[in-house]
Each structure stands twice: as structure tokens, then as C-alpha cells.
């Protein structure tokens, strides 16, 4: 293993993630963008990875720093490998990966087509694996004790919910156990792998639900803290798991759910 294993980059500015390079998939909006901003605020240089070109305003919103965009479809192995190679060529290191890109096609199981099933599996499960694998390969080659945070969902722990969502629930459950398995496999290299399981979050991802006041009221009634989460709530948990304060935490998926799963 490399000589940097387990060591933090030498910095002077005092922010917890100074000197780190972070990649955030799905980082152009929603939880991904909030996470990119939080990582930048904590001192990291952030690469926003998205399937579509990232608007200049997104990068500007991250504040000062050499933040940049990388374009790739995370379901395409070659595009993923190239995107991470580009980050390495530019920055010389990858310390943090946040797998935030996700897809939901909300349909009853009896009506769910194989084409739609395959789309959700490709993004949520295969895409998460491809990005985690290539990030770990670069971390191990460089001797970097990195951190990977996967975005699962409360639906990865629950078969219930307010509507049928079989492929989303299945893939998010897979992410929970993928997180455990990778944490165990990569622990000898000092790489920590954790996850977060958000509740319903006030983002464009659930815009059709937010347009139904009665449904929002039901979600709030089912949540002990009586509100939906904001993207910043989830981002704060991700930054904690990616940072030095979580140095002894790996293989854990942290619900960010206002107590939803505690009932």
C-alpha cells in the first residue's frame, strides 16, 4: 500500500476537507448540488459529474475555488472510467466520491415494464457500483485513504410508502448492502464506504409529489419531526461521513429521515 495511506493532506487554512478532491455524481441539482456546495464550503475541490453539460452558474454557486464539471453517463463503463481518469489527470488525486445520481419510475410492480426496470437498475445500482469501483481503484493506486458516500433512501429499508415504487425500493436496498460489502472489502486499503438514506426531500426529484398538498400532508404526518427534509439536511450528513470526524465509521447507512424509520 502507498505511503499516504491513512494520512490527511497537509493544509493550513483549517477547513476539514482542505486539500481533498471530491467527485459528486448528479451534482448539478437537488441533493447533489447541495452536497457539492457543502463539500466546497468544507474546503474540498469539487468535480460536479453529470450526464448533461453543467451550467456555469452551478459551478459559480460553489463559491471560490478551482471547482469544475465532468460530463459522463454513469451507466456507461467507458464514460465513467474516462471521467475519473480526467479528474486524476487534472488534480492528481481523488479523495471523496459521493454517489448521488438517481432515477425513479414510480409504477406498480404488475405494470412495471422491463425497459423501465432496466433503466432504474442501470442508474441507481450499476452506476453506483461503476463509480465506486473506479474511484477505489484510483485511491488504492495512489495510497489514499478515501471516503465514498452512497445515497440510498428510506425506501431501501422499507417495503412500504405512499405509492408503488418497486424498482426504486429494490435498487436502494441494493445500495445499502453494496455499501456494507464494499466497506468490508476495501477497509484494508483505508477506504471508508458509507451511505445516507434520505426521507422525502424538497427537490425537483419529487416535484410531482410536492404538487399534491394532501400527499405532502401525509408525509409530514408520517414523520416524527413533521416536515420534509431539505437538500442541505442530507448534504450535512454526507459531508460528515466523508470527513475526518467519521474516521471510525464505515459500512453504515445513516437515515436522514426525521424519525420516519424509527416508528
From TrEMBL:
Keywords: Oxidoreductase. GO terms for molecular function: oxidoreductase activity, acting on the CH-OH group of donors, NAD or NADP as acceptor. The keyword Flavoprotein does not apply. The keyword Oxidoreductase applies. Belongs to the short-chain dehydrogenases/reductases (SDR) family. PANTHER family: 3-OXOACYL-[ACYL-CARRIER-PROTEIN] REDUCTASE FABG (PTHR42760:SF115), SHORT-CHAIN DEHYDROGENASES/REDUCTASES FAMILY MEMBER (PTHR42760). This is NAD(P)-dependent dehydrogenase (Short-subunit alcohol dehydrogenase family). It comes from Chelatococcus asaccharovorans.
